[in-house]
Amino acid sequence: MSDKITFILDGKEVQADSGQTIWEVANGRGLIIPHLCHKPAPGYRPDGNCRACMVEIDGERTLAASCIRTPTEGMVVRTDSARATSARKMVVEMLLADQPERAAAHDRSSHLWDMADANGVTESRLPTKDADHIPLLDDSHVAMRVNLDACISCGLCVRACREVQVNDVIGMAGRGQNAYPVFDMSDPMGQSSCVGCGECVQACPTGALMPATMVDAAQQGDSKDFDEAVKSVCPFCGVGCQVSLKIKDGKVRAVEGINGPANEGRLCVKGRFGFDYIHHPHRLTKPLIRREGAPKGLNVDPGNPMTHFREATWDEALDMVAQSFKSLSANGRGRAIAGFGSAKCSNEEAYLFQKLIRQGFGHNNVDHCTRLCHASSVAALMENVGSGAVTATFNQIEHADVAIVIGSNPVENHPVAATYFKQFAKRGGKLIVMDPRGVGLRRHATHMLQFKPGADVSMLNAIMNVIVEEGLYDQAYIEKFTENWEAEKAHLAKFTPEAMAPICGIPADQLRAAARTFAKGKAGMIFWGMGVSQHIHGTDNSRCLISLALMTGNIGKPGAGLHPLRGQNNVQGASDAGLIPMFLPDYQPVTDDAVRSNFSRLWNSGDFSGEKGLTVTEILDAVHAGSIKGMYILGENPAMSDPDVTHARHALSKLECLVVQDIFLTETANYADVILPAAAFYEKNGTVTNTNRQVQMGRAAVTPPGEAREDWLIITQLAQRLGLDWNYTHPGQIYTEMAKGMKSLANITWERLENEGAVTYPSLSPTDPGQPIVFADGFPREGGRAKFTPASVIPPNELPDADYPFVMTTGRQLEHWHTGSMTRRSRVLDTVEPEANCSIHPATLHRLGVMPGGNVRLVSRRGAITVMARADRAVAENMVFVPFAYVEAAANILTNPAVDPYGKIPEFKFAAVRIERAQEQMPAE
Amino acid sequence: MALDDNQGIWKSGKGKGRHTPKGRQLDDLALAEVRAILGNRPRRRDLLIEFLHLLQDSYGHLSARHLRALADELRLSMAEVWEVATFYAHFDPIREDETPPPDLTIRVCESLSCELAGSEALIAALEAGHDPSRIRVLRAPCMGRCDTAPVLEIGHRHVDHATVEAAQAVIDAGDFHAVIPSYETLAAYRDAGGYKTLQALRDSGDVEQVQDRLLEAGLRGLGGAGFPSGRKWSFVRANPGPRYLAVNGDEGEPGTFKDRYYLERTPHLFLEGMLIAAWGVEAETCFIYMRDEYPAVRQILLQEIAALEEAGIVPQGYIDLRRGAGAYICGEESAMIESIEGKRGIPRHRPPFVAQVGIFNRPTLVHNVETLHWVARICREGPQILNSVEKNGRKGLRSYSVSGRVARPGVYLLPAGSTITDVIAAAGGMAEGHAFKAYQPGGPSSGLLPASMHDIPLDFDTLQPHGTFIGSAAVVVLSDHDSARDAALNMLRFFEAESCGQCTPCRVGCEKAVKLMQADRWDQPLLEELCTTMTDASICGLGQAAPNPIRLTIKHFPQEV
Fold this sequence. Notes:
The structure holds two protein chains of two kinds. Chain A is an alpha/beta fold. In chain A, 63% of the residues are buried. The N and C termini of chain A lie far apart (64 Å). Chain A is built from 29 helices and 39 strands. In chain A, helix 13 (456-469) packs antiparallel against helix 16. In chain A, the strands form eleven sheets. A seven-stranded mixed beta sheet of chain A has the order 14-13-27-26-25-15-16, with helices on both faces. A six-stranded mixed β-barrel of chain A has the order 32-36-33-35-34-39. In chain A, strands 2-1-5-3-4 form a five-stranded mixed beta sheet, with helices on both faces. Chain B has 24 helices and 17 strands. In chain B, a hairpin with a 2-residue loop joins strand 5 and strand 6. In chain B, helix 10 (196-204) packs parallel to helix 14 (267-281). Chain B starts with a helix and ends in a 5-residue tail after the last helix. At the A-B interface, helix 2, strand 7 and strand 35 of A face helix 1, helix 4, helix 5, helix 20 and helix 21 of B.
């Protein structure tokens, strides 16, 4: 790549890197050659079709498209010749002939008009196209408007959809003057398989594709009609996409992806169109105090909470909370108070929250939703690798030639990460997908192992058995970097593919084929999600994956590594910040006296308990048992997210003082005594850490509604009332204090994050953008070696039987995130996925006598829900998939609270249920 | 448990949700039907167009439900299937809300020779005479039977010298299969010494020597580009294998029918030439891309390829016969390669050239049918077969496809230095009652020349100074009955309909040109600006050459525009 090519550009000798195009060289020198179909952004291949960037090359018969042409040694290129200039101008004139008038444009500030200006073209002398050849408006999608009368058939939307996002919805149909982009089979966008990522809208240079919020009823608009643009980080999943928020009149008007390290400009439907929840009328704007005698239950209308609550001043509310907590906890030193922090707030807020519980109440009963998602993964990683974070960013798949995605549906749950996986498969990478559901990656998979739910260990052990038996393991790596190999090897001997096939449901030859594909890869990555972690054997599942990576030497090199995909935007950061009952920041054990004394020094406080605190489910059990009487819940929704949620809701209703701090009156807040209105993520400054270990800066773009306040400020003000000597006035101060207690944040200062937007930890110097891959020279364990921990087959806790013959598994859907409190208040997301539903195989539905879309009653040993049944052949015939975002049919009423002994994570992914045809009933509304 | 304790009270989207995942769902019956039709054929993406033909042939159209199932079966997206199905004129993709076409389709050629022979009146009469719900009448580009203009096709059966009555007779008879002419079979060809040359070369041939003979003979690409054939082999061989050979049988340049002429008579000369070239570049597979307008040729080739396999001359599957689907652009070699890969036929950018990056991104030798016919003859008979002929300072022979206002239209093998006067003479002179006015030397891409330019040898390189070229030597002769302006408009309409739509200058340029050319008086400066940009900035030869009819009409027939 170091070979430079020297050529002549407009009379000057210039140099190009190998592979660089003429356009890029010119652009690097400050010369912008007009361009339309070329989008100089990561992931976009030049296509050279619009011919707006033509240049003249000496000795060539025709002009050349500079965007796609690479110079050769000595080539003489002219961008400014009369021939090139007039061709470029005429191309634009040809296109303008068929554009709507600029004054009536769908996007008055479109790139096309910019380029027309650059060419000095204002109108066209050419006749316009016959009206019957111009496609009509398609407004079938709630989020986007398709006005192909402005389309120039440049195919950027096709590349956006097919090559960048790999959603494969848009194609270029027809030919000649009738060549237009279509969705699926010329379907209306809203009825197509479009997932609403909006990449096409962001790529379209003409306004033919526009966000619905940017055009009026006459389809006229202006993409630059905003007051300011603020860079922040998407508040939804753990991918951590960087966004640019377009603010108009104090509100977010539109969102675009920008070039963050994880997303490179891409977004999904939630990130691009799901922002408007922050402007929803349900936002909490004043502190609320429960009215005397108002019954506790899931009985409050978030649109009208005054039936059960009254408004209060901040002083009254905070005083009341402080007073209650003090009285319940023997003046602030007692175990009767517990806290649930949030993986949705900033690092600073997570840090402050755990500090408040530990410093304020002297114990460690503080936890958050990591318990419900990757606690078992972290347990296994800590045990065997010595660190709970990913060993490589997901973007490293670019350098891999083989990858496993297991128990994860990234197409819906980590959509932007999934784009990289799909691109990898498209490039020829071998993708091994393992999941009981035929998830969205299936079409891209080289091997699709649709195994029996809960049979992970048997399948993975069989695969490792093959690798051992066929000698496909990496002996040198094992010797240098691992321990306990002989025991692992001996353990695996009995897990032959033939023996395991009946258990996991995958034929032995397929297990062998997958094993060979993975082991023979030069660099392999392993991605997993909650399908692995949310089992009573979740830790064992992860142990197998770790062993598989270790025996094939797939850690610590480009394109290799272990990557549990994190669910929430800051679950990595919140865990790092110590929002865990057994760990202080950076996973330092609370049981270690030296660690605790470091923190009490940093906090200028006395010691606190050296006893591990209680986990999420244990805390609620303790509430039932009466030992915990007060809770401070910040931005979590256990009344929806806990297993056997009826039990959790009862616990919440038993609390003497429940304080809920949130942006909406959540299901949990239904049970609150005091509700504190918080600022939403786009209303705050603060850092978050994504699944890639990238610490990123979120910036306030709009002001919080009413009297809502930033979480860090509320925590600080409460701490002060609890008698703590806190005086933070800016999150930067909190970050700086936190970083003092966290080696992982070495070299990553608040100022750097403000300037650079993102730094990956570990960062080895003040200028190092951070290490995408770790553990190249050993592991942070004693002796520097990672460990093989053999895992045995443990069946799920609750197997189907005659009364409950189906396996229910739970999870998320593309449009809804977590318990739906945000996404169900987004107009676009709620419109696309408005109704509680479950997915059942069409054959099963047929057998049950239920039409697709009919209602079914799902009954488990914990309870029953009635829900619309969606016919979905991705689900095995003996399974039902239930998303957990819908309060009116909450999946967790059914789930089994049995937990993994190490990670204490509940078995959300496996419960025995019965499916009945529901009696049709009146809507609850 | 009370209801409110269970469901909350703020949210219910009851009755609003989708009953299935997003988008069109897979239909089990459609999948079974598609599987039955595909049989045990490999589910390869590059076979998509072949599979679309199977469905179109069986059901008369491509229903969305079948396409959805086909996408699933090939692990393609719906859009990938749909965009291919909608690109080619011979497919009828039908959405659920559309009406499938009637069982019978009449395609009437409207290209220049057929237009001169009255295709417009024929179309009008057919449209008036048939209920469109039972028989549809479509306009179609050149079917390569210009010597028997006007021509139409019912099903796969062509009707030469077509009339309403002749069409009705075919409809009444109910046989819509292609008529297979008698031709030289493998046995006959071998009896006459066929394939001995191939065998000798395979046994102990020297590729360099063969290339030298081709160069010595002066053989150049007869698809129209005229690249020296021997040299092409070297370029392909310079790139590491695996390599492929692709035969461009997409003879779509209106007025051209020489490839069909040879294939319907002596297919094995071509096949032996192809196998010699394949031997020369050590091709892994020979793809023959045959235009769908030649169903008889396709039948002949299917039969004779099977015979070659049977005879052990080629291994099973070594020759992969692919069927075009009605797209002139696929005569452009890189568009043809895209089509062979099962995609829309859109030309690729060069560099890289197909000799370096061709089918499946491998080095690919692309030859025209007639070129390979001559490869065999040169190898069998020696270079003098071509280089011994000399006329007007030009060497070699040229197969002129002659149509229009001549007495005996047809393919004439004449010295390459022949002028239009010679060509007309060979074709029996002008048709009765017609006086020579103008001629198209090499398809619409070559535009029109006036009768006054009758003394130019019609060969490679000789026409360039006059702003045109010989191309595939599709000569159409116009008479005093004909309008140059109308002929030019016919040509531009053809380009407008056949532009792939990829690049702006061609997609928009052709469409705008057609509109400007319909004005009573042409806006010549604006048309010239448009032409300049089309020529300078189009990706491929279609858009680059499309202005030729405009410019030459303005130049030579100014009184008409």
